[in-house]
Specification:
98 residues, 57% helix
Length: 98
């Protein structure tokens, strides 16, 4: 009887898709945490997290799933790249009210 490799191939593809989904969700969640930590305006959290996900997909060697690097440079880079999309905001950060 001939062994059919197709079921193994399908399972491998499903495993890779699952790992990719896990990576994407973890990176997105880290992006949200970075935005919250640096008090980015709440309306911009998802936009920053999307940018962070794209950045980490392009640079996966910079990502560590075991800890969140709270680096404000990511927010600065994002704002320099995409601030023109957000005309309603002068800064990505929430205003501090006294």
């Amino acid at each position: 009887m001939i062994d059919n490799p197709l079921p193994n191939q399908v399972m491998q593809e499903m495993d890779l898709a699952h790992l990719s989904d896990q990576f994407n969700q973890t990176v997105f969640d880290h992006g949200l945490e970075i935005a919250k930590h640096y008090k980015v305006h709440s309306d911009l959290h998802d936009y920053f997290a999307d940018w962070y996900l794209d950045y980490m997909q392009q640079n996966p060697d910079l990502f560590d799933h075991t800890c969140i690097y709270l680096d404000s440079d990511y927010i600065v880079d994002w704002w320099e790249d995409e601030s023109f999309f957000y005309d309603d905001f002068d800064s990505p950060y929430m205003e501090i009210k006294k």
